[in-house]
Amino acid sequence: MAARKRIKGNLSLTEVSTRQKHLTKKELELRNTCSGPVCPPVPMKLRRSNGKELFNFHDYAVPVYFQKEIPLSAIYKKELKLTYMEQVFENQVKVGEGSFGNVYRARSKEDNEYYAIKVAKNNHTSYSEKFGEVLRLEKIEEHERCVKYFLAWEEQGHLYIQLELCMTSLDKYAQQNHYIPEQQMWDILIDILEALKHLHNRNLIHLDIKPENIMITSEGIYKLGDFGLLLDLNEFKNKKNHHSSVNVSEGDSKYLAAEVLQEIYTTASDVFSLGISMLELATDLMLPTNGPLWHQLRSGIYPKLFEESKYFTINILAM
């Protein structure tokens, strides 16, 4: 088999664009393999570090909180040989799975309402890594355009987080709908901008905005969710001054602003991530994870698919 030819010399991003092509998701579905030169990798992870700390495990449910205590359900009895989930919830169905753990849809026996229960994997090495998401959720404060947080508890070494249940994610919706009308695009943009304003006014940045983390309610409202990478800029600056950093996590390189790779964190990085998410939705574009095409999108070189889009006229390029 002949060796794959490499790109020789120093080519500009524009020259490389003649050799590589942005694909729509629909086109990608029709192709079994990708051809073309191998793209040089781009660092994808937001590296964070913390010293290892010890934390206790409980056979019974214990509420987890940092700022304000949220009590467990009154119907829970720890002396019973049943978990909190078994005592307080019913009709449990797994609706999601990822590196973080599993998400279940479950109905509360208290109010008969359905909730999303996120169950984190028990593979953490420090207290802050395990329970840090709870602290971040508490900092956000309730807002109508952010997925609502209700309660967190620890039991048998696992962290459980009770959240508002939404109908689906924007990512799953877009997989079934390759064409999204302009008015709907405006609705998405305005709803998530309201969520960002809420965060940024509190000096918080999301750092992981993408269609997968934008949820859709049964009323057609778009809400920002998954605050696992949320960063408090005030705390980050203080830690940086003391030569320390935040806990290990990673973002999705397809939506990442270039400056984040240099550990430059500002509210503008969220705006970029939202903008490139809107570009993806408007054009059905398959965003690159690395390489020349990745750099083009962050250097003002945009695909013709976007320029020719007739149904979404907002100037996303300005974002």
Would you mind describing this structure in some detail?
With 319 residues, the chain is α+β, with helices and mostly antiparallel strands. The protein folds into two domains: 103 residues, Phosphorylase Kinase, domain 1; 151 residues, Transferase(Phosphotransferase), domain 1 (Orthogonal Bundle), CATH 1.10.510. The chain contains ten helices and 13 strands. The strands form four sheets. A six-stranded antiparallel beta sheet has the order 2-6-7-5-4-3. Strands 8-10-11 form a three-stranded antiparallel beta sheet. It has a two-stranded antiparallel sheet with strand order 1-13. Helix 6 packs antiparallel against helix 8. GO terms for molecular function: ATP binding; metal ion binding; protein serine/threonine kinase activity. Keywords: ATP-binding, Cell cycle, Kinase, Magnesium, Metal-binding, Nucleotide-binding, Serine/threonine-protein kinase, Transferase.
Write the layout of secondary structure elements.
Blueprint: H1 13-17, E1 23-24, H2 25-29, E2 62-63, H3 84-88, E3 89-98, E4 101-108, E5 114-120, H4 127-140, E6 149-155, E7 158-164, E8 168-169, H5 170-176, H6 182-200, E9 204-205, E10 214-216, E11 222-224, E12 231-232, H7 233-241, H8 267-283, E13 285-286, H9 291-297, H10 304-307
Antiparallel strand pairs: 1-13, 2-6, 3-4, 4-5, 5-7, 6-7, 8-10, 9-12, 10-11
Catalytic activity: L-threonyl-[protein] + ATP = O-phospho-L-threonyl-[protein] + ADP + H(+); L-seryl-[protein] + ATP = O-phospho-L-seryl-[protein] + ADP + H(+)
Family: Belongs to the protein kinase superfamily. Ser/Thr protein kinase family. GCN2 subfamily.
Organism: Agrilus planipennis
